[in-house]
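Why should sequence recovery work at all? Because a backbone constrains its sequence more than one might expect. Tight turns favour small or flexible residues, buried strands favour hydrophobic ones, and helices have their own preferences. The token representation captures these environments compactly. In the example below, the structure is given first.
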């Protein structure tokens, strides 16, 4: 009925009344009219149909409404961003019940102004609040600064006793003005160790505990492999196999083994067969889908699966039989894959290796080499094979940005005591290359055999963003040239990064170029991965901590190993993949945002201990209200335009710089400056700098030619890019 209604309305040149629709549908029975009324109500509720002032109906497209995500700044001003067009500005009074991050339909009255007509989807159904003592008694302040001026009412339980500093999780009962909230959970006192990070996680809908029924289901899973479970599996227990992970890792979901051949190598990547234990539709599966993936923050991991599984039977612990799926690859001497096979297997890992010890072996540390000598030539063979795989990947144009990622060290109270760059050695890169090779092979298998699954896709960067980067690179003395008529390719980007790798400007340029890249997402269609330079790619190697990998395993089992040939089931599974992709993409976004926010919070907390100190840094971003400076330890702070006391500065959006009106002094991305730490707010996740010296030359340090589009514009905030805690490949 809905489809028929939309087709009729969509094909009409004028809005239609309900009576006109009833006639067009030729409704006769009472059941028809009941179905019609229900369909109309639902279509209007979902804003698929828009009612005019004359009580006539149009489709969303016919009404001229624009769908987008509402972004609200701290002053309450809203924006809807549009690719290649001006943003739509929405005043606070015109946002109705919409909040920051909501998906909305907007009606515009000119090129840049509009009003929210309908909220399609609220981004959040909960918020974090902190109780504070005031002259009028206890008051709950929302942690989200964007809601500080919003009219809010909060309902508390009858026996609830608030104390100053108590943090609570608030559930939305009704959107609008006022925004009606209710206390759902006490998180703890704001100064208690770990409460700050717990608040961020809960604010991003990342649950800290598993429901009891999920824990019970996990406890019921046997913690040893039985003989019956070995049926139909290739026995690899006699093959020398190792896992390689970080020193603190407890869940090992990938293992490797290698055999040198006369021409090349036989590389086996064996992945924990989580799908054997987490069956589709079970309470374990439902909770894993709800979480989407594990979340890695400063002092903890919030796992996708209960620890009894992720650290137990699903983890490839050494000297224990474990069920796996193996991608068995024959690698040519040039690092390309000659042939591969994917099959269910059983392994018994010989050793739980760490990246630290592996790197020591690569560096020739005599004690470490002696300790693992019993593994024979595994390390030399793996090194030779992985380096050839990497060379083959690079020749295809696979991009390695190698940007700096922070390692935040905290004490027993959760307070940051040191921040340094995370070291990524040869061993980390080698294992990454092996995992990527397996992901590519499995993607090829799934696509060739038309098996429903989730692919990892990555679109090429937008031309507009590349043009902005091109101007930045030129200003920094490292031109990024794309010959006229030629398209951008991964190899061209990688060649450019290689050419500037030893320059002082590399960190900034690599970070800026990374921001030009599209976001990688999950999709049921095999659309290729630009950054990895592969036409077929998916995630197969981390089913303990990523739900899409678990989906791939499950579909392999069903259609490849168990031989399901039902066209009806395949069609149903393919349809289901769209829903799963949306859920996994949504969860990945929340997880990434939470990880970013925790990092920002801990960096601000760390810098609060260093007020008044002076340090060297690089300008990492320029906006209309100042410029950001990144320090050697990756901490970033804002030099506000108001603190530049020696001149009046305006923002040239086209040139991407601040310009002094008297001195013509410019501040650009990549410029070295000396700053003084003047402020840091853990609550606002912000750090403030000033220039250590306000002295500037009477003449500009280099000529400035103002562009005619000179403007005070620019509302973009701090821009960040970093690795993804083991989820990179």
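From this structural description, the recovered sequence reads:
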């Amino acid at each position: 009925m809905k489809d028929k209604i939309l087709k009729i309305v969509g094909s009409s040149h004028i809005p239609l009344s309900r009576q006109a629709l009833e006639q067009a549908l030729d409704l006769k029975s009472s059941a028809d009219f009941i179905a019609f009324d229900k369909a109309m109500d639902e279509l209007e509720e979902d804003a698929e149909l828009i009612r005019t002032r004359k009580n006539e109906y149009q489709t969303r497209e016919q009404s001229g409404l624009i769908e987008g995500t509402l972004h609200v700044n701290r002053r309450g001003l809203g924006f809807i961003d549009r690719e290649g067009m001006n943003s739509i500005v929405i005043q606070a009074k015109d946002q109705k019940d919409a909040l920051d991050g909501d998906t909305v339909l907007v009606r515009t009255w000119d090129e840049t102004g509009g009003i929210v007509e309908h909220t399609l989807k609220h981004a959040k159904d909960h918020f974090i609040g902190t109780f504070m003592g005031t002259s009028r008694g206890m008051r709950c302040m929302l942690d989200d600064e964007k809601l500080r001026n919003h009219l809010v009412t909060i309902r508390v339980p009858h026996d609830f006793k608030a104390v100053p500093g108590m943090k609570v999780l608030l559930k939305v009962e009704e959107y609008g003005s006022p925004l009606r909230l209710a206390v759902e959970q006490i998180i703890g006192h704001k100064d208690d160790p770990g409460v700050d990070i717990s608040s961020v996680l809960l604010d991003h809908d990342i649950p800290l505990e598993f429901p009891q029924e999920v824990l019970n289901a996990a406890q019921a899973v046997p913690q040893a492999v039985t003989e019956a479970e070995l049926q139909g599996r290739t026995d690899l227990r006699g093959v020398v196999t190792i896992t390689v992970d970080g020193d603190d890792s407890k869940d090992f979901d990938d293992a490797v083994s290698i055999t040198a051949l006369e021409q090349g190598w036989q590389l086996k990547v064996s992945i924990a067969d989580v799908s054997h234990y987490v069956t589709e539709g079970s309470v374990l599966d439902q909770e894993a889908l709800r979480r989407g993936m594990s979340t890695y923050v400063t002092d903890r991991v919030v796992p996708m699966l209960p620890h009894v599984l992720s650290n137990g039977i699903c983890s490839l612990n050494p000297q224990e039989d474990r069920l796996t799926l193996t991608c068995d690859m024959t690698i040519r001497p040039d690092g390309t894959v000659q042939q591969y096979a994917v099959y269910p297997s059983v392994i018994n890992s010989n050793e739980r290796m760490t990246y630290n010890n592996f790197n020591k072996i690569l560096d020739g540390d005599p004690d470490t080499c002696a300790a693992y000598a019993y593994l024979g030539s595994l390390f030399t063979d793996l090194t030779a094979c992985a380096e050839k795989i990497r060379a083959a990947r690079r020749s295809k144009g696979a991009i390695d940005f190698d940007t700096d990622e922070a390692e935040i060290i905290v004490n027993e109270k959760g307070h940051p005591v040191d921040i340094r760059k995370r070291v990524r050695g040869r061993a980390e890169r080698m294992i990454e290359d092996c995992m990527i090779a397996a992901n590519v092979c499995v993607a090829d298998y799934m696509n060739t055999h038309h098996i429903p699954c989730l692919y990892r896709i990555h679109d090429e960067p937008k031309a507009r963003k590349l043009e902005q980067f091109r101007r930045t690179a030129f200003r920094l003395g490292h031109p990024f040239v794309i010959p006229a008529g030629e398209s951008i390719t991964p190899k061209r980007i990688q060649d450019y990064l290689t050419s500037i790798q030893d320059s002082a400007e590399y960190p900034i340029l690599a970070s800026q170029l990374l921001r030009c890249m599209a976001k990688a997402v999950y999709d049921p269609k095999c659309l290729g991965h630009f950054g990895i330079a592969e036409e077929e790619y998916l995630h197969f190697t981390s089913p303990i901590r990523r739900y899409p990998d678990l989906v791939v395993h499950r579909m392999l089992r069903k259609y490849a190993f168990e031989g399901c040939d039902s066209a009806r089931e395949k069609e149903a599974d393919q349809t289901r993949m769209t829903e799963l992709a949306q859920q996994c993409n949504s969860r990945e976004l929340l997880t990434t945002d939470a990880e970013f926010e925790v990092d920002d919070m801990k960096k601000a907390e760390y810098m609060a201990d260093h007020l008044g100190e002076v340090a060297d840094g690089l300008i990492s971003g320029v906006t209309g209200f100042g410029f950001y400076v990144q320090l050697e330890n990756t901490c970033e702070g804002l030099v506000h335009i108001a603190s530049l006391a020696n001149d009046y500065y305006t923002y040239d959006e086209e040139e991407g710089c601040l310009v002094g009106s008297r001195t013509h002094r410019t501040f650009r991305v990549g410029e070295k400056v000396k700053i003084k730490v003047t402020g840091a707010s853990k609550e606002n996740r912000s750090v403030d700098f000033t220039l250590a010296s306000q002295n500037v030359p009477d003449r500009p340090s280099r000529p400035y030619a103002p562009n005619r589009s000179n403007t005070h514009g620019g509302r973009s905030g701090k821009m960040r890019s970093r690795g993804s805690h083991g989820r990179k490949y």
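A few observations help interpret the result. The longest strand covers residues 337-348.
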